[in-house]
Amino acid sequence: MNTPPIPVAAPRLEAADIAAAVRVLESGHLVQGPEVAAFEDEFADLVDGHSCIAVNSGTSALWLTLLALGIGPGDEVIVPSFTFAATAAAVRLTGAVPVFADITPDTFCLDPDAVRAAITPRTAAVIPVHLFGHPAAMNEFTALAHTHHLALVEDAAQAHGATLNNRPAGTFGTAGCFSFYPTKNMQSIEGGMVVTADPALAHTLRLLRNQGMERRYDHRIVGTNARMSDVNAAIARSQLRRLPALTGHRRANATRLSELLTGLPNLTLPTTAAGAGHVWHQYTVRIGAALGDRDTFAHHLQQAGTGTSIHYPVPLHRSPAYATAADLPHTDTAAEQVLSLPVHPELTTTQIENVAQAVTTLALAPARERAA
User: Fold this and answer.
1) Which residue of 66, 94, 148, 234 could cross-link 24, Cys pair, CB 3.0 to 4.6 Å?
2) Which of 25-34, 177-186, 301-310, 313-322 shows the lowest mean pLDDT across its residues?
């Protein structure tokens, strides 16, 4: 029987997570109760004490934040095209227009210069994404937002615990938005969080997530149901306690991969900018043209026992839902070249070495073998 490939992601609930969920199920307090409040308080320690508003997904976190900021029809919001669709979907769901800007080729994050060039009188906000766990250039974005009077919303869905010059991701802008989807660096099966230092914004977000209610049947604004359940919150609290250890494993795995893969021709390894505390949601390399087609390279790795993933093969500005004529050369090149290798905390030392060996063997193989 064939051995399954080493997975590129390995979501897992440990006994403590399951016990936390069972405890809540037996308590009868299931939705927006004491577990949610406790999770919000505990998550605040990760984000310099900012107010934390738990919601039912990372997409809801972004969408409700834009709604709370008053962004809607007639507004433009600058976003990267090289990201998961939720970043742009949240903009569209408010009635505003996502304007796509290019990325920097080294970190894959939104390029401040490209954002500066995309600002118009209709621009209301910018959403930098801390992609793959690497913080975006928040000092530059903060300055841009101040100069042009823009809201700055951080998409930190992949960046739990990431830092820039020792400051946590999610705390630079008007608000920061996190996801707790199963493949993220910490999970709650499903869920999201908005963090902000603005009390008024936090209050509006709490209304929006709960049908606009101040108290039961006291509807102050039009809201929706974006509540986090206490079951999700209990799992998230358990995961949050392990986040430092999980992050440490990711960083150690990334370091070891880089040690083993450094020097291979036509393979560009991920880099970390000065002052950045990378949390390695993904370990994403570039497959140079001399190594052949990226998808074929990935197929051969799969056959050799190494799972891979491509984030993101179709940039949003070229997808049917968001298609525009935007000229984003770094984005288009990244979409053709990137390949994510396993880096998750469940990997063993032997698996890391096997991944590196498979990549090395394929990268050094004659071109005719890679093309086969």
Assistant:
1) 234
2) 25-34
Count helices and strands in the chain by DSSP H and E runs? 12, 15
71: amino acid identity, one letter: I
Task: Specify the range with the lowest mean pLDDT, choosing from 247-261, 296-310, 358-372.
Answer: 358-372
In this predicted structure, the answer to whether residue 372 has a pLDDT above a threshold of 80 is no
Decide: 188 and 232 in contact? Cβ < 8 Å: yes
Q: Exposure pattern of 40-52 as b/e (b: 16+ CB <10 Å)?
A: beebeebbeebbb
Average pLDDT, the chain: 96
Does the pLDDT at position 369 exceed 90?
A: no
Q: Closest by alpha carbon to 133, among 234, 239, 253, 36?
A: 253
Cβ(328)–Cβ(101) below 8 Å? yes
In sequence order, what are the residues at sequence separation of 6 or more whose Cβ sits closer than 8 angstroms to the Cβ of residue 188?
180, 228, 232, 233, 235, 236, 239
Of 158, 195, 226, nearest in space to 39 by CA: 195
Asked if 21 and 188 touch (Cβ cutoff 8 Å), the reply is no
The conformational region for residue 237 under phi > 0 = left, psi -120 to 50 = alpha, else beta, is: alpha
State the Cα angle at 9 between 322 and 102, rounded to 5°: 30
- Both tokens of 188, joined, read 């709650």
Question: What single DSSP character describes residue 270?
Answer: P
Q: Is 349 exposed, middle or buried (CB count within 10 Å of its CB: 0-12, 13-18, 19+)?
A: exposed
Distance CA 138, CA 143 (A): 8
- Cα dihedral 286, 291, 297, 303 in deg (nearest 10): -130
3-state helix, strand, coil in the chain (%, to 5): 40, 20, 40
7-27 pLDDT, tens per residue? 999 999 999 999 999 999 999
